[in-house]
Amino acid sequence: MDKNPNYYFIGIKGSGMSALALILHDQGYQVSGSDIDEYTFTQKPLEEAEIQIYSFDAANIKPGMTVIRGNSFEDDQVEVAAALAMADELTILTYPDMVEQLITQYTSIGVAGAHGKTSTTGLLSHVLSGIAPTSYLIGDGTGKGVPNARFFIFEADEYRRHFKDYTPDYAIMTNIDFDHPDYYTGIDDVRSAFEDFGNNVKKGIFAWGDDEQLRKIKVSVPVYYYGTNPETDDFYATNIKRSTKGSSFDAYYHDEFLGNFKVPLFGQHGVLNTLAVVAVSYFEEIETQLIQEELLTFQGVKRRFTEKHIGPVTIIDDYAHHPSEITATIDAARQKYPDRKLTAVFQPHTFSRTIAYQDDFAKALDLADNVFLTEIFASARETAGAISSADLGKKISKFEGIVSPTEVAPLLADEDGVFVFMGAGDLQMTEFTFETLLANTQTNLQ
Q1: Strand, helix or coil at 381?
Q2: SS3 category, 320
Q3: Could you tell me if 417 and 340 are in contact, meaning their C-beta atoms sit under 8 angstroms apart?
Q4: 152 with 104: CB under 8 angstroms?
Q5: What is the predicted pLDDT for the residue at 230?
Q6: How confident is the model at residue 446 (pLDDT cuts 50, 70, 90)?
Q7: Taking the chain, what is the end-to-end CA distance rounded to the nearest angstrom?
Q8: By the 8 A CB rule, do 315 and 431 touch?
Q9: Helices 268-283 and 117-129 meet at what angle, rounded to 10?
Q10: 30 burial class (0-12, 13-18, 19+ CB within 10 angstroms)?
């Protein structure tokens, strides 16, 4: 890749776009971009790297630029339109185009799945970074570019088949689920997208063995299943122990004992994600002791079971926005805090998903002791729908009411509980209000 291009990102605050911008910046390129004026959690790392962020304006597009076009923008978006009008004077690449350029330069591992992509990408990036030079692109907005890297770890997003043309050496597939009813026609359509991606993988795929859709995939490279069944899985975990400090297990590849692995993660999915990392590392002939040492120091990724303590109250922030993710997050919270009352605060994300999964949402949320909802978070593509949070609440036996950034007082009834805030929209506004009120209450009590 030529070091001269001036890379300009349209939509630079997107979680994948910001991570990619950071990678290119680390590699010595000139990087800038534009986005909405509202503050986002991905903004701080960009500002710390002194990457200039502009408001959307056609005048930002200049001849000679290499423009990276975010996946969310249509041809009539003001800067996209300006770039298309100057197509003879600059280069236009999509986000997947740019990621693929990085994939071809290293031993690359793409992490795909309806759920667990970011957590697994973050864990794999952490482990390999401590062992060998590693560049990575994580879906929480974290990106790092390392000169002369051996590995490139990246999150491969299935939405609108964005991952279909990626050509990594390996892929981890955590699961297949019908998570985007606004795009996919059904589970068979989703599986076909994963097969298209899988057929571009060069060396091998590591797939969760308990997922019936992953068991059905037909691809041209070997598939190694990981899980907890010695009879059907290639890599399997036994002697699993889950405590308030984390999880541990013995790992095997067929009859070969690989070692005992400990990780400060909670929930069954934490064990499975770790096993996937062990499997990839085994094929890259990485010493077991090095993997064991790096796992012990993993501190998680942004908005994935992120904890904060205010007095006796524990607040957990998680991106979970699908019933399977909610179930996994509550499972993890129960493991770490088995003797405390657990309150779920959930923001439904998009009307179509809420309608499609309303019964599953209710079942998952009822695993908590109390449940509060915010209003449904709409999207640019879908601003209204035939369901409300109150409708969803009627299906939840432990439903306590609706909260918002201006109304969080009902949450104060529990003085020493664990509050799990889950959602992919702007739930953090409600969470921040609650934290502020809680902190003020604690101060007044002192």
Answers
A1: coil
A2: coil
A3: yes
A4: no
A5: 97
A6: very low
A7: 59
A8: yes
A9: 50
A10: middle
pLDDT band at residue 444, thresholds of 50, 70 and 90? low
**Separation of alpha carbons 45 and 355, rounded Å:** 36
Structure tokens at 262: 């400990």
Tell which wins on pLDDT, 254 or 426. 254
Please give the residue that has the higher pLDDT: either 1 or 11. 11
pLDDT, the chain, mean: 92
Please tell me what DSSP assigns to residue 12. Answer: T
Residue 182 has pLDDT above 80, yes or no: no
* Nearest CA-CA partner of 197 in 223, 162, 155: 162
User: CB pairs under 8 A, 24+ apart, for 202-206?
Assistant: 202/167, 202/168, 202/169, 202/170, 203/169, 203/170, 203/283, 204/170, 204/171, 204/283, 205/170, 205/171, 205/172, 205/173, 206/170, 206/171, 206/172, 206/173, 206/235, 206/276, 206/279, 206/280
- Contacts of 291-295 with CB under 8 Å at 24 or more apart are 291/127, 291/131, 291/259, 291/261, 292/259, 292/260, 292/261, 292/262, 293/130, 294/126, 294/127, 294/130, 294/131, 295/123, 295/127, 295/261, 295/262, 295/263
Indicate the pLDDT class of residue 381, thresholds 50, 70 and 90: low
